[in-house]
Amino acid sequence: MLAQRLIGLLPPLRADEALQLAAIRSVAGQLPAAGPLSTVPPFVAPHHSSSVAALVGGGSGLAKPGAVSLAHRACCSWTSPGICPHLLESLRTPLEEGEVRLARADGSVRYPRAFSWSWR
After folding, report:
1. Sequence-distant (≥ 6) Cβ neighbours of residue 84 within 8 angstroms
2. Which of 41, 73, 79, 96 qualifies as a cystine partner to 120, CB 3.0-4.6 A?
3. Among candidates 67, 60, 78, which has minimal Cα distance to 25?
4. How far apart are CA 18 and CA 41, in angstroms?
5. Cα–Cα distance list, 102 to 24, 51, 91 (Å)
6. DSSP E strands: which ranges in 1-120?
7. Residue 69 phi/psi, 5° resolution?
8. Is the pLDDT of residue 81 over 70?
9. What was the pLDDT predicted at 102?
């Protein structure tokens, strides 16, 4: 509950940050069709049973962004009774280097990662 309230304490996104987030949401198919550009920082809380693809991105064709990139410029909170080693390893590069890199047969993509991460 505290992690969800953190968003209310964060300042609104600047125009360039809101555009970055809108671009990520657009690629993920989550950008609303109408309405102004959102300046509210996102809060993403993946389920504890989420897959690597749900966390860092994936899919067939050109890989779509996952929770790590959808939380860009805000907060990603994960409830986990325990973390599998392969999930932890998939988060290593985004947490250390600030970006998600995914390679598929159709090409490679790089999605940004700039967020606060909390474990519950």
Report:
1. none
2. 79
3. 67
4. 8
5. 14, 15, 12
6. 43-44, 57-58, 64-65, 75-78, 99-104, 107-112, 116-119
7. -80, -30
8. no
9. 87
- C-beta of residue 54 within 8 angstroms of C-beta of residue 99: no
| Residue that has been written with the tokens 């700039």 in this structure | 114
The token pair that represents 19 in the structure block? 């555009």
| Cα four-point dihedral sign 48, 50, 89, 67 | negative
For 33-42, how does the pLDDT look when each residue is reduced to its tens digit (9 = 90+)?
Answer: 887 888 988 8
Q: Given a cut of 60, is residue 44 above it in pLDDT?
A: yes
Q: What angle do CA 44, 99, 50 make, to 5 degrees?
A: 40
Nearest to 56 by CA among 22, 86, 32: 86
The amino acid at residue 64 is K
What is the sign, positive or negative, of the torsion defined by CA atoms of 12, 55, 93, 83? Answer: positive
